[in-house]
Design goal:
- The protein is mostly helical.
- It contains seven helices and no strands.
- Helix 1 packs antiparallel against helix 2 (69-84) and helix 2 (69-84) runs antiparallel to helix 3.
- The protein is rod-shaped.
Length: 189
Amino acid sequence: MSGAIIALVVVAVIIVLLGLWLAGTYNGLVRLRNQVENAWAQIDVQLKRRHDLIPNLVETARGYMKHERQTLEEITKARNLAQKASGPGEASEAEQQLSSALGQFFLVVENYPDLKANQNFLALQEELTSTENKIGFARQFYNDQTMQYNIRIQSFPANLVAGMLGFHRRDLFELESEAERQVPRVSFE
């Protein structure tokens, strides 16, 4: 009888240890998923701030840039698409288009010295630059959290629990365009 009791105790200890491991793994995955969602919420706040600044910037420039209607319309169109984007994948693509439209806008602004000297425009431009920096920091934090989460759900043995309980891979939030990835060419001619 003592052999049967020992066997039951061993089985009970194995079941308890397996249950503790399962609970610990599940709780760790939930913590990582929530960190990813929180990091995305921080990006979302900064993107909303960026989207709110753009109409003021465009309206300020509109009075000076009467012949640049297409440039201003492109920014508005890109902003509207970015506001409708949901999730990191869709937002990445929409924000790349918006960044491109803003880049074109600031190139055109160079042709308008009065606009470049306008205090309201300068303040909006500075606030937009500050927001872009905050987006960059939030994006880095989100991508770090997402990478940790993705590694955890893809690593053995946690991947067994993740697959059974509906934890899925998350997309990174990437804004770099091909032009930004190329090494700049410096010329002193």
